[in-house]
Amino acid sequence: xxxxxxxxxxxxxxxxxxxxxxxxxxxxxxxxxxxxxxxxxxxxxxxxxxxxxxxxxxxxxxxxxxxxxxxxxxxxxxxxxxxxxxxxxxxxxxxxxxxxxxxxxxxxxxxxxxxxxxxxxxxxxxxxxxxxxxxxxxxxxxxxxxxxxxxxxxxxxxxxxxxxxxxxxxxxxxxxxxxxxxxxxxxxxxxxxxxxxxxxxxxxxxxxxxxxxxxxxxxxxxxxxxxxxxxxxxxxxxxxxxxxxxxxxxxxxxxxxxxxxxxxxxxxxxxxxxxxxxxxxxxxxxxxxxxxxxxxxxxxxxxxxxxxxxxxxxxxxxxxxxxxxxxxxxxxxxxxxxxxxxxxxxxxxxxxxxxxxxxxxxxxxxxxxxxxxxxxxxxxxxxxxxxxxxxxxxxxxxxxxxxxxxxxxx
RNA sequence: GCCCCCAUCGACUAGCGGCCUAGGUCGCCACCCUUUCAAGGUGGUAGCGCGGGUUCGAAUCCCGCUGGGGGCACCA
Length: 410
Prior knowledge:
By secondary structure, the chain is mainly alpha-helical. Helix content is about 45%, strand content about 10%. The strands form five sheets. It has a three-stranded antiparallel beta sheet. It has a two-stranded parallel ribbon with strand order 1-2. The chain is elongated. It binds one RNA strand through strand 4, strand 6, strand 7, helix 4 and strand 11.
């Protein structure tokens, strides 16, 4: 993977990185991380760290230390000078240009696109070294592929037209080109390139919204690839086991947030309750909530079946940590008063006991459970939508529960 | 303008000449379950862009069209 350090990691680049990673792990190869920073003018200070954080969070571990393209500046210059001596390149207004062949074609068998041929007459003599001495991407990148022993280049299809140039360059220095696989881009559901207006685009944004890494990885893997027509949910191990470049689709894929949401929910629900609670605590901490961790831990199971993203947790559980506002609700005072009286006598104040008490209350008042419970729910949680009422009451505790029922009547 | 690529339900896809009355998943709709919301269960909706070929037979192969995308920097 070879990102340029110009900002936060885009989810489309992650998809490409994921394919690289899956391919490498499947074949027992190495997945390399290279920072392509030859364009110093566009470099963003924190980007290198952020890119690594994002990859680590996703679990896409790379082999060996990450490298910087700019570190090879001297090697690149030496090669450029040699190419000039050999007559394969020439000076041009302070820069050095590579002489592309004028006749014939340059071709390669792209693993996802099939055979691609370019007439050489269409290839411009490309700048190898800028007049200020820095190598260009199209020079440094293929040279590094050679020096690093890269066997497979898996990258976005916006690089297709660069490939014949890079192949000619590699051959000019007497090396064999790697295998290329150009994967299609990721669009929004409207068919336009995925951008901010579609929602989250950087890994950080997905993380902040409460998506979890395994779900995101599973979803991304299915964007342009499928092991068969049936399987949807796959563990990291199964993904590695079944991944193959040959089954990567040559056509672009649309990013469907609804399906991601669903899949994230599937992963959330499948988590061990303790592990889940821990993830919620961690997430809320990251997001700057100062809610009591122990209470969060206890509340987590109440919403595990209900939310799709960790970011949905606060909306369900806020009533446990903050006062509720009842603006705009008209509640049946009689139900609230009876409930308060009934609950006052419940001991111990547990979900089971509470349920028994409230059900008998509903019966006594001749109300259907839903009609009896809804005003209580609203009075206690401040919302028509909440975790289970009885468990919620238990967690709130008798004192606070009674206080809210009382407050709701005034 | 010049090169190049892509094309199955709204979305992700299976399909690689007969197993297709085109399958799965998300979404959507209905019903069931139900203390709200979810989750879960059952059923349903919806597609091979168009036109020519090739073939006994085409979603699958070929050509054209249309539509979409990418590239054409001393950016990566």
